[in-house]
Amino acid sequence: MSAKSLLLTGTLSLGLTLLSGCSHYFQGIPDLMDAKDWEGRPLQEAVDQFGEPSDVVRDEQNNSVARWIYTTQYTRTQGYNELSAGPGGSTMVTPRSYEESYGKECRLELTFNAQNVITDFKTWKSVGDACNSYSFSYPKK
Question: How is residue 60 annotated by DSSP?
Fold first, then answer.
């Protein structure tokens, strides 16, 4: 492999690694469309739509951010086969399983100003599909 090829492969690998660490805040097409509809609207409309926020925090710029946090817990059974030596040189297959628990978190984060007007819309996902069960679109009339 040439030095140029190695450099290109290394750069691509590093870029993908860095991007994967930021994926929680990557906004998909639905998020971008929803943001356009919510920004500039009164925060009370979001409260009417989603209920009271889970909490209100300050971001790095000291802006107020209302957060709605949705968590879901799952348990699944994983199965595998254990191979071992059997009688007469054969292979013995023993089915095994274990339970695995995991959670998903989806957050809607609305930044708002002193007049309680939404200035920024973001979703945060612990995994890529964590918000798939929720709709944050503005209600169309």
Answer: T
Segment (H or E) for 79: strand 64-85
- Distance in angstroms (rounded) separating the CA atoms of residues 56 and 76: 33
- Rounded to two decimals, the pTM is 0.65
CA distance 53 to 47: 7
Task: Note the pLDDT tens digit of each residue in 101-133.
Answer: 888 999 999 999 999 999 999 998 888 888 888
Phi and psi torsions of 41, nearest 5°: -95, 160
Q: CA-to-CA distance for 124 and 105, rounded, in angstroms? A: 8
Both tokens of residue 50? 């989603």
Q: Among 128, 131, 72, 134, which Cα is nearest to 102's? A: 72
Beta carbons of 93 and 82 less than 8 angstroms apart:
yes
73-92 burial, b at 16+ Cβ within 10 Å, e below that, comes to: eeeeeeeeeeeeeeeeeeee
pLDDT tens column, 69-90: 999 998 989 999 999 998 999 9
